[in-house]
Specification:
The protein is an alpha/beta fold and about 240 residues long. It has helices at about 40-45, 50-55, 80-105, 120-130, 155-160, 165, 175-180, 195-205, 225-235; strands at about 5-10, 15-20, 25-30, 60-65, 110-115, 135-140, 185-190, 215-220. The protein has one domain: Alpha/Beta hydrolase fold, catalytic domain (Rossmann fold), CATH 3.40.50. Strand 1 (about 5-10) and strand 2 (about 15-20) form a beta hairpin. The chain is globular, with a radius of gyration of 17 Å.
Length: about 240
């Protein structure tokens, strides 16, 4: 695969930011790392290699941005409100730096977002908050409730970054219309410790009439070998 290391200064974090990019063309796919993971994690654990045939064929171009969970959701040294604000700054990097780069390089107006475990949270939250930008959302054994990171604190910013809270209250037809046209996959399995969370989110989406695929697999747990099986199938669903 064609692989490129990218580093740039982003004003959204007031520091340099790193990313790996794979491929030469095709539909852009932004893949978030798991909890506390870095930009090279999805490569090192073979997730990118599992879709090498799609990358080399020019079906997809994959962007692996760095993570910021250590400074945000997992950072017990700062106030929970600052954890949320740190995450919001990270989202601005994805929305205003990574997405425009992917759009420019591939010629596609929308992107797919994906991630495993807590990366599934990032994918779902980004896609659901920006459904005009995300054409597809692929969550692999995701977990979608961030209240456990907030030590009892909760405000509007936390609410609007917690999909299991804001989806039930979503009434805006602009958002709902875009979400109903998005390709959404929630991947899980009977051995996945996040299985109940995926079923719960699926129920919330059903209640809002948002089509999606709940891929509940037999003999499937919460680890990279299972995600390497899921990911090629999900990317093969991309059209356009």
């Amino acid at each position: 695969m064609n692989e490129q290391y990218v580093r740039w200064y982003t004003p959204h974090l007031s520091r340099d930011f790193e990313m790996l990019v794979f491929g030469h063309g095709g539909y852009p796919v932004i893949v978030f790392p798991t909890s506390l993971g870095r930009y090279f994690q999805n490569k090192d654990f073979g997730l990118i290699g599992s879709v090498a045939h799609l990358v080399d064929a020019g079906k997809v171009k994959i962007y692996c941005p760095d993570g910021l969970d250590e400074q945000g959701w997992y950072n017990k040294s700062i106030h929970p409100a600052d954890r949320v604000r740190t995450h919001q700054a990270y989202e601005r990097v994805i929305l205003h730096d990574v997405v425009p780069r992917a759009q420019h390089e591939t010629g596609h107006g929308r992107v797919a977002v994906a991630g495993a475990s807590f990366g599934g949270y990032h994918a779902v939250n980004f896609a659901f908050r920006h459904p005009d930008v995300a054409g597809y959302c692929f969550s692999l054994s995701g977990s979608f409730d961030i209240r456990s990171f907030l030590d009892g604190f909760y405000n509007d910013d936390a609410y609007f970054n917690n999909p299991v809270d804001y989806i039930p209250g979503l009434a805006d037809e602009w958002f709902l219309g875009h979400l109903r046209r998005m390709g959404i996959v929630l991947g899980t399995g009977d051995r996945d410790n996040c299985r109940d969370r995926n079923h719960h989110l699926s129920g919330l989406l059903n209640a809002k009439g948002i089509p999606h695929f709940l891929d509940d697999r037999a003999n499937c747990g919460h680890d990279w070998n299972y995600w390497r099986d899921m990911f090629p199938h999900y990317l093969s669903l991309i059209h356009g």
